Structures are given as structure tokens and as C-alpha cells.
Amino acid sequence: MNGDRTDAGTSLREMLKGRFLIGAALNDAQIAGQDPVALGIVRRHFSAISPENVLKWDAVHPEPDRYEFAAADQYVGLGEKHGLFVVGHVLVWHEQTPSWVFEGAGGGTLNADLLLARLREHVHTVVGRYRGRVHAWDVVNEAFEDDGSWRKTPWYTVLGEEYVSKAFEFAREADSGAQLCYNDYNLWKAPKYEAAIRLVTSLRQRGIGIDGIGEQGHWVLDGPSAEEVEAMIVELAKTGAQIIITELDLDPLPRPEELIGADISKRLARTPERDPYPDGLPEGLQQRLAQRYADLFRVFVKHPEVSRVTFWGVTDADTWLNHWPVPGRTNHPLLWDRQGRPKPAFHAVVEALRRASRDGA
Ligand code: XIL
């Protein structure tokens, strides 16, 4: 029983009411109102939105004394207009951050006081502007390597571990009511979730509130398994933090092992072998993708600590995986195809949710 083949009458948001928020990330064109197909899907199926790029440091704060809030304002306004839970992504990251942030005054070397002052000013300005309107913030992105060690970013090199606690402190000062989250990829790898757990525990011990842990969820067809994802949820949930899948997509195209996750600094050149399905995903893979989405949603609904699941994109036409790790591919990782039609993966998720409700799970 696969349910009907259209999405008539179904709404992921309605089916997930009382369980968790279901979100989608919006790109610049969608935020600017130029993609009615995607916006129609968002209004019907989603209860939360994230901004793919418009709230990143390079977009919002390109020069020391210049903020550009026009697109971010539109994004927040869109969420308010449609009554959506509005996510802010991201305050502190080593990517998509202008080089001036990590340069000393007048071309000199950067010292800790100056970087800390920049961090404080940026977080206060951005979070303060949307106080009470952006409901959750990814405060820090990707502080750890897959082995659980600290990633040696300029933030870490100049400020040490403190940069994370300071970012959370400043965000809390700017909006005491927002949900504040730590976000990373590959948290299903034990050394990495252990690092996240240590971080949350140490912040809490010092009285710094952290509400959520986000696993990006940029996964591939073969892994992580639903069991690995469930183990991650169970372990992270022991901290008492909410668990959020912040950037879900399942990549069905070939991906070398060292690119599992989402290190956006790494790239591979496009070759025909790396772009095998420009005319559409073959039925067998379509079904595997569907099965895997269903397995994962069965896990998500089992755990009340999961408070939101957000897809990184709406349809396959706009997925960032058309551009990463191989630029110019035709990728197929989401629930809607390039024309905005629901895929077998959509129907499989709907069916999994129906069954979960029926079985009282
Ligand atoms: C991606 C965006 O989707 C792209 O448009 C952009 O070119 C690069 O960044 N992890 C994150 C997101 O936390 O911010 C990234 O978003 C994807 C990986």
C-alpha cells in the first residue's frame, strides 16, 4: 500500500502536527518571491523555514561598518506572513565569512580582543534586529572534525574553545527567548557526537544555555543507516537538548568516502561518470531513496526529543547538491522533482507517517 500517486489532500505539516516541526531551506530567489512552485509547496507542507544563504555573515555583514539586511528582512517577513517557525542560519562559521573578519586592523595580525569584539558586535546586531521574530538560531556551525577534535578554524586559532561559549552568551544577551543551537554534520559518527555532548555539558556547567543540537543530515543513499541515526539521537538526547535535523537531503549520486558529510571547501571536477542521471533517477534508485526516507522518518517520529526536521531545499531543481561536491550535476535528493511533482520518496514518507499514527507510535 503506497497511498495515492498524487499529493491531493496530504500535507506533511498537518500529518506532523503535535510531533515535530517540518522545515525547508529557502534560496535567494524563493525569498525574493520568484519561485511560486516552491513557495506553494512550502505553504502547504512546511511549518518552518531556514535561509540557505541570506543570514550568513558574508551576506548580511560584508564590510566592517556595512550590514545588508534587505534579503534577510524579506526572509523573516515571509515566515511571519505565512505563520512559519523562522530559523536563523548561521551566526558563527569559518565558511561564507568575509576575509576582513579574520584580518587585523590596518592589515596587521589579528588579536583575540579585536576578533571577540567583532563577534560580539555581529551577534548582537543580527540577533538583536530579529529579536522575537527569528525563533531559533544556529549559533555555531561545524566546530569539530569527524574525529571529535576541535576544527582549527581562525575562530579556534585566535580565540580557542571560548569562541563557542562567547557566541552563545552574546546570542542569549541579544534574545533571551530564542532557541539556541549547535549545528554540525556527521554527528552520527560516535567521536563527533561525543564531542558535541562534551560541549553541551561544559556550556551548561558554566551556566550557558544551549537548547538544541542540530545534525545537518547531508546523508547519502548508503549511509548512515537508520540504526546509526537512531543511536545518535538517543545519545544526544541524554543531554536534555532538543535534537534537530537541520539540513536533510539524501544524495543518490556517487560520492567518494572522504566527502561524506558536507565540507563545502572540498570540490571535485565534473565528469560524465560523476553525473550519471542527467535525465532522471532510474526507478530502482527512486525506490531505494523512498525506502530510506521512510526508514528515517520512522526513526524521527519515535523520539519526542526530535523537535524539527528541515530539508535543505524544496525541489530537486534548487538543491545545493546540483553544485556540491561536483559543480553542474543533475541531482535528485529531495521529495519533489524538478517540476515540483512529488516523488516516490514523498509518498513513502506520507505512508510511513500514516502507519506511525495508526499504530499509535
Ligand atoms: C550551502 C548553501 O546551500 C549553498 O547555496 C552555498 O553555496 C554553500 O552553502 N552546511 C551548511 C549550509 O551549514 O550552510 C550549507 O549551505 C550546506 C552545508
Write a brief caption for the model.
This protein has helices at 12-15, 28-31, 36-45, 57-60, 70-81, 112-129, 154-159, 162-174, 190-205, 226-237, 283-302, 344-358, and strands spanning 21-26, 48-51, 85-92, 136-141, 179-184, 212-215, 218-220, 242-251, 306-311. It has 361 residues and is α/β, with parallel strands linked by helices. The radius of gyration is 20 Å and the shape is globular.
Helix content: 25-40%
CATH-level-2 architecture: Alpha-Beta Barrel
Q: In angstroms, what separates the terminal alpha carbons? A: 19 Å
Number of strands: 9
Which structural class best describes the helix and strand composition? alpha/beta
What is the CATH superfamily label?
Glycosidases
The number of distinct helices, counting runs of at least 4 residues, comes to 12
- SSE succession: HEHHEHHEHEHHEHEEHEHEH
What would you note in describing this structure?
- The chain has an 8-stranded parallel barrel, surrounded by 5 helices.
- It has helices spanning 12-15, 28-31, 36-45, 57-60, 70-81, 112-129, 154-159, 162-174, 190-205, 226-237, 283-302, 344-358, and strands at residues 21-26, 48-51, 85-92, 136-141, 179-184, 212-215, 218-220, 242-251, 306-311.
- The protein has a single domain, classed as Glycosidases (TIM Barrel, Alpha-Beta Barrel), CATH 3.20.20.
- The longest helix has 20 residues, at 283-302.
- Strand 3 (85-92), helix 6 and strand 4 form a beta-alpha-beta unit.
- It has 12 helices and 9 strands.
- It has 361 residues and is an alpha/beta fold.
- The two termini are 19 Å apart.
